[in-house]
Every structure is written in C-alpha cells, then in structure tokens.
Design goal:
71 residues, mainly alpha, 4 helices, 0% strand
Length: 71
C-alpha cells in the first residue's frame, strides 16, 4: 500500500477547508487521531500506525466519491 499522505497533503494545500472534511471521513472509517494529530501527521510531525494509514486511504476514497457525487 502506498502512503496516502502525499495525496492528502495536496488536497488540503489546494483547499484548506478539506482538512476537516477529510478528518471526518477518517474518523467515520474508524480512525482514532484527533483533528490536531491528524493535521500534524499530514505535515510530517507525527507518525500514524499502519492501520491508520489504511483508514486514511479509505477516507481519501470516500471523500473523492462524495465530491464526485455532489450536484
């Protein structure tokens, strides 16, 4: 599995409001990091465990599908 962080960083850099939305998808998929920890991870200041990386990848997929399905 590839590290989903670079794609998430790009998403947040292009639209900072997406940080909270992406975090909500991450939490909905079972992620345990608080928003501050999640943000620190995206900026390379914190390391998430391998399962949280899978959850972030799932959150990125869900977030992408949700954005595509918006009217």
């Amino acid at each position: 599995m590839q590290d989903p962080r670079p794609q998430a960083q790009l998403l947040v850099r292009n639209d900072h409001s997406s940080l909270c939305l992406l975090w909500v998808w991450y939490r909905a998929n079972g992620g345990e990091a608080r928003l501050e920890e999640f943000d620190a991870y995206l900026h390379g200041l914190l390391v998430l465990d391998p399962f949280d990386l899978k959850i972030l990848a799932w959150a990125m997929e869900d977030y992408g599908r949700a954005r595509v399905s918006l009217p």
